[in-house]
Amino acid sequence: MTALTLSTAGAATLRADAxxxxxxKGAGSKSGDLVVAPGAExxxxxxxxxxxxxxxxxxxxxxxxxxxxxxxPSGLKVPVVLAVGLGPVPKKDDAYGAEALxxxxxxxxxxxxxxxxxxxxxxxxxxxxxxxxxxxALLGAYAFTAYQGGENKVAPKGAKPSGxxxxxxxxxxxxxxxxxxxxxxxxxxxxxxxxxxxxARDLINTPPNDLYPESFAAVAAAAGKEHGIKVQVLDEKxxxxxxxxxxxxxxxxxxHGPRLVRLAYTHPKAEKTLALVGKGITYDSGGISLKxxxxxxxxxxxMSGAAAVFAAVVAAARLGLRVNVTGWLALAENMPSxxxxxxxxxxxxxxxxxxxxxxxxxxxxxxxxxxxxxxxEEQPDAIVDVATLTGAMVLAxxxxxxxxxxxxxxxxxxxxxIAEEVGEASWPMPLPADLRKGMDSPTADIANMGERxxxxxxxxxxxxxxxxxxxxxxxxxxxxxAFHEGAPYxxxxxxGTGSAxxxxxxxxxxxxxxxxx
Length: 517
What we know:
Strand content: 15-25%
Number of strands: 20
Oligomer: single chain
Structural class: alpha/beta
């Protein structure tokens, strides 16, 4: 992991491999519009006040995420200055937004892969700014290299094996107050949250031949032991005994049996309990309703919801939040075989309801249904489930925004606002009652499929059937932003992103403060 320090050094005296400064787009459109952002005054002075002019000559515009490297002048102790674009200059009396700082820091950290230490002299007017820069840098420095850089057995003798550059080793935040409690707390929070997001990313990126329900459960158990979280793992025998028909039905076609993992972080002074439920399909072939060619290659990411829940519970424990947080990981591998559930089969769920399976590729809602019912038995103050649930949600909101549904409008609004605050794009979605009829079954209590149009909302309505009465519940469909297939941008890497973790952690903090919504 990349280290984080609050540096007492000034930009002119810091010894590091590089120094990161911010630049922004001015209001005009002519030469001279580039603006050097606060924090870079010493660097600009070292360039005789012509840093903006030099950068413009090199083609820099200050656009968000734009990175320009240039040799440092003799007045600095670093060999390289990296200027990163912050986007438009804020309006008068406004500061640079937290998300702009996160994205700029992420772009800079990624561009400095292979470096040992970099100083970040971005605009820092408060501890909140420092936290945003730290988050962006630590998330942007992420790289998944566990399966790369192996020995090349046919390479010439003595040749060094080629491999990816290591992530930036240390982020030093300049312009901070290392002895100030607020800055210390901001740094500690940023480190805890980003390390858990990156742990979730690692899980999402791990190949499915190495990550399956049993091995995922083992990772959770080990983390629980490390951070004082109680972990209970229900294996196949326990699931059969308990009547978890959804989990068993989805997992019965695989050689790797399903698991239900319960993680419980408790605080002795907690007054509220938050339950988090995550879809953990470690690989989704579609089952008998096999996915078409071209749709299987990224299906290792179908456990992103469980990874987010796992990360959020561990982060809550590391931060010592004054709230009880219970995480439920509904883990299964959805495979076709002679033992697999068939379209037309009827499953008896943990709740006692029966479900006619019309499509085995609508499996996430089946494992979540069992977990939601079990979580409801403990009567938490609220339940939030997180899942890469439907392609319909991607069609509706694109690849960067997750949908939020809930049985309580105020709760849905709170989660949407929290997500926007922490920099995760989300959008409130309805649960139209008229779509429920499409899931009526002549054979069972409900079918796992309904109308095709509005499929993401239909899935939400299905889940709502398994939430305990009187419990505030929200459903986050992260099918779009959970796995990024394009080029990296800002602090978002290619592959697993850790979507929804920041939202869940902030929700836990709000709950601890008595502001559940």
